[in-house]
Amino acid sequence: MEHHYVDALKQGDEKLIKELYGNYRNEFLFFSKKYNIAGADSLDIYQESFLAIRKHALSGKLYDVNSSFKTYLFGIGKHLIYKKLKEYSKNQSYELQVHKVDFDYEEISIDATGNLTKEQELLRHYFKQLGKSCQQMLTLSFYRGLTNEEIATLKGYESEAVVRSQKSRCLKTLKDLIKKSPQI
Q1: The domain containing residue 17 runs over which residues?
Q2: What distance in Å separates the CA atoms of residue 114 and residue 63, rounded to the nearest whole number?
Q3: What mean pLDDT do residues 131-139 have?
Q4: Would 47 be classed as within a structural domain?
Q5: Distance of CA 106 to the CA centre of its chain
Q6: Co-location of 104 and 51 in the same domain
Q7: The pLDDT value given to residue 184
Q8: How far is CA 5 from CA 8, 25, 75, 101, in A?
Q9: For residue 184, is it within any domain?
Q10: Lowest mean pLDDT among 153-157, 161-165, 169-173
Q11: How many CA atoms lie within 13 A of 63 on its CB side?
Q12: pLDDT on residue 169
């Protein structure tokens, strides 16, 4: 990390600290938009991130960091964003979550009037036989393209390993259903 930034944070150089704070603020707010975080929460997260990096500077931890100031700051911010997303998901009522799931599936429904291949018809048929949690897991992963870590944060799982495990079970169930199909 840039040692002159660490020194400024450690020694309380107000001019450079204000400059650092302002340099990355708008860029961080733009970065946080892709996570659908409320604007006020994004500002709070940025402030917390900046305070955390200053605390790390005061403790002397930053002299050994190999990343840039910006990368380290955004890394802290991303961690706090995930924490906030987890809070969001915990605060939603069960009814809202069920409604949201149903809405998600309506959005991605396959147009049955189109010409689907035999494989697509089988996939659609057996996908509908999976439980809602498996449907949601596979949709978030393969249709929306979310990473295991993003799914874990969004749905409040302990870790991305839990998501990976559940996704694997869901895929295996779907494959087994298709393999047992008399239509193959």
Answers
A1: 3-91
A2: 60
A3: 87
A4: yes
A5: 22
A6: no
A7: 56
A8: 5, 16, 17, 46
A9: no
A10: 153-157
A11: 6
A12: 92
- Whether the CB-CB separation of 155 and 96 falls below 8 Å is answered with no
Residue 68 and residue 109 in one domain = no
102 and 148 in a single domain? The answer is: yes
Which H or E run includes 28? helix 14-33
> What CATH number should be reported for the domain holding residue 127?
1.10.10
Question: For 70-102, what is each residue's pLDDT tens digit?
Answer: 888 888 888 888 888 887 776 654 434 444 444
Give me the amino acid identity at 48. Answer: E
- Please check whether residues 12 and 83 belong to one and the same domain: yes
Residue by residue, DSSP assigns 49-101 as HHHHHHHHHHHTGGGG--S-HHHHHHHHHHHHHHHHHHHHHHHS-HHHHHHHH
Amino acid of residue 166:
Q
pTM for the model stands at 0.48
For residues 57 and 102, state if they share a domain: no
